[in-house]
Amino acid sequence: MTTAPSGGPDYGLPPEYEHLYSGKVRDLYRTPDDRLLFVASDRISAYDWVLPTTIPDKGRILTSLSKWWFTQLEGVVPNHVSSGRIPKAVAGRAMVCERLEMIPVECVVRGYLAGSGLTEYLATGSICGNGLPPGLKDGSELPKHLFTPATKAALGEHDVNVTYDEVIVAIGQEEAQELKRMSLAVYEIAREIARERGLILADTKFEFGVARSGKHTNRIVLADEVLTPDSSRYWDMSTWQPGGQQPSFDKQFVRDWLTSPESGWDRAANVPPPPLPDEVVERTRAKYVEAYERLTGEVFS
Fold first, then answer.
1. CATH number for the domain that contains residue 128
2. Three-state SS for 77?
3. Which helix (H) or strand (E) holds 235?
4. pTM
5. 197-216: pLDDT as tens digits
6. Where residue 10 falls among pLDDT bands split at 50, 70, 90?
7. How many structural domains is the chain composed of?
8. Are 136 and 234 contained in the same domain?
9. Which residues pair with 221 in a beta bridge?
10. Which structural domain range is residue 54 located in?
11. 202, 233 in Cβ contact below 8 A?
12. CA separation for the pair 145, 167 (Å, rounded)
């Protein structure tokens, strides 16, 4: 599978910023004072591939929206964002963050049936060991919010849904309970904020780490991005209708085009996807901007 640049993209950062890692979208650097600089690129991924085409301003939107959400969640959970100088080369698309010992669990919370949760429900009648009533449809609201964790996969591989009991075995009961509590608390608050803005937060995923120094020493801290269109599934409340795939505020235009005859791409052939046409790029950017503006009430510029 295609991976992000191993040596780090050329943002023009000062040489004292050491490149540590590149994921599908984000690039991570060590700052001169031994903190972390999270840089959100304009890369976009689909079907486990990083595409050859970028989406203009995507990194700025993701960073601005994450920072907005971290502010909304102050007092609910601690987060890894720190004060610090951001180099001009990545202004607007970067955050300075505290170093954490990351917990190897994707903390997924679902309020509606979609995606891999729908696939598992149709096959087993449950999601991650959580039994569900029969007759639910694609897009149905779940009887209660579910914590449905997954193991974190390597770049280019699928995360694997696991049960809560498996998380307890992997990291211990106390830490697992805290992850579940914090994930559900954040989802429930974010769900209400989104609802006030006419949006359904169908599901989302969080990452957490343990701070080994600083003001949150030995506490579990919310990390990475939070509640963006890349990590969350947002639907328009006015058009929600269970029984089929719901239009979402994310890269759905990209997925739809890649799997259409127009792209000429065979998903099963293990060959890289083709470049995206301009129209798909423009419509995808517009969806990210709309999500930002509807949630924050601010005009993106």
1. 3.30.470.20
2. coil
3. strand 232-236
4. 0.93
5. 999 999 999 999 999 888 88
6. confident
7. 2
8. yes
9. 209
10. 18-99
11. yes
12. 18
